[in-house]
Known about the structure:
Strand content: 5-15%
CATH superfamily of the largest domain: Type I PLP-dependent aspartate aminotransferase-like (Major domain)
Helix content: 40-55%
Distance between the termini: 64 Å
Number of helices: 16
Number of domains: 3
Bound molecules: pyridoxal-5'-phosphate
Order of helices and strands: HHHHHHEHHEHEHEHEEHEHHEEHEEH
Amino acid sequence: MSEREHGVSATDGVTTARPGAGPPAAAGTTRDWSAETLRDALDRTSRWLLGYRERVGSLPVLPRTAPGEIRAALPARAPRDPEPFERVLEDFERLIVPGLTHWNHPGFLAYFASATRGPSVAAELMIAAVGVNAMLWRTSPAATELELVVVDWLREALGLPEGLRGVILDTASTSSFTALLAARERAGERVRETGLAGGPPLAVYVSDQAHSSLEKAAIAGGLGRAAVRRIPTDRGFRMDVDALARAIADDRSRGVRPALIGATAGTTSTASVDPVAPIARVAEDTGAWLHVDAAYAGSAALLPELRDRFEGWERADSIVVNPHKWLGTSLDCSVLFFRDPAPFREALALTPAYLASEDGEVVNLMDFGLPLGRRFRALKLWVLFRCVGVDGLAASLREDIELARRFANRIERHPRFRLLAPPSFSTVCFRAEPGAAPATDEVADALNRRVLERVNRRGRVFLSHTELDGRYVLRLSIGSVHTRPTHVEEALAELDAAVEAELGSPGGPGE
Ligand code: PLP
């Protein structure tokens, strides 16, 4: 690029603007923005951000955009010349925001929430400001040590035993995959050196309700889908422990080694909790690695009154809890706890010459996962704990659970809806019933699809669906700090209106 394009001479300093090259807001006059330009951009951004958070509840939760529409509105090539930030922010508001699904909308009641509390917004700014990479202790001692400290704060707050350590990764999928790699190393024979070929076949056991990330981990970890045993669940969607024991015994009799049992505390569909204590006994008896996927519900262990639901998880080899699901940190923040760091190191530590350090007895976080570069995620948890406090976090979880309980009660009493699973934590599965005339499952499924479509199209709330016993089921989950009782009332009103439009008011025809 020419001197003209950059606005700096080849010899002057990298941050010195060429006289007469234009106002600082035009950017590009230096390698980086001047302090003045950055201040202006931050002022604009924070004004925008505050306004957005205030008005997000009045926007449709789901965007009304057709596939490809946003892409078509954007230039095919990056600009060659710098543009003022003001214009970028305008385009963000004009082109991008209308195409967003608003996860911070108070009516976001789909999937598991991931809403950002104020302290996490501030923490993200701090993370960007320092931009450190916590791959090695020396590449940012404070980031490494803060990560160890906040993971331990979380462990203690969740009532997990001392001695359990952990790291912060991006997502539960990565955390579970990492656990599988450690389990694979322990169960296999020199997998690190020779791979899986030639070693004993390994198997993974999860319930038929487990999240797909466990299966994906088996695929990515070279075990293959065929190595995943989907263990049936009981009427409460909890893993059948006898069936688990039988599956392992069967495998062992054929020379297949049980590498990992994945128990779930808070399944994705119904938030059911597998019987972790008896599963732990099976794991101990068979030598299988026990991984507990508590990505969503694990946060609820902050509440002493709910701790017994997690009984046995303290015996796990590894546990994943996602603060970005229910504690209000921004995506991404997934904590992987483990009892013994050795299998992680054995599976994943690899230090090329250019990363070798002579710092002595330090923890290098790159040794515990696949990525080398690591964001300073610990700051999000630190700021959250400091600014909200454990009791504050617990109080909002209690509110969410109470809101879900009230919603479930209303559904239970509703003439047109029926609960499809016991409400669990802050998640409720239910279904509209076609009415007095007997209807096939297909007719009922189609009705529920249409009800959900009607509700979500209106944009006041966003609910999702799942499948239970092969049937299409509606699902509401509360996990956003922005959701208040009025929004749950609104969800009920929307559901009411949608089912009435489909079936007519009691006694009358539908639309
Ligand atoms: N485990 C459970 C139980 C989940 O519900 C989910 C996602 O909702 C995941 C794992 C995957 O989470 P992530 O998006 O952090 O990979």
